[in-house]
Amino acid sequence: MLRWSVESRVTPAIKALASGSSAEIPLDGAIATMLAEHDEAGAALAKMRELTKGFTPPAEACNTYRALFAGLTELEEVLHRHIHLENSALFPVARKMAGI
Description:
mainly alpha
């Protein structure tokens, strides 16, 4: 389950650190929660890919069905890019700024 309240508090905390202020929440736990959420999202995407045979619609699929699978492919690409940027760029910098 995604914990949007954590994410909605992490971004302002990181912005505060970047501007020289202190974070309103402890980032170590919040970032750990978001990393766990990223793992959950990756597992959900992997399960969707498995169930849809790689987002491949059946030969007899209508255009709406094909559009759905194309949308799932796009969702997977965008979410993987988002997770990579946060895990590999944003979170390490935020941890450094927070001294953790």
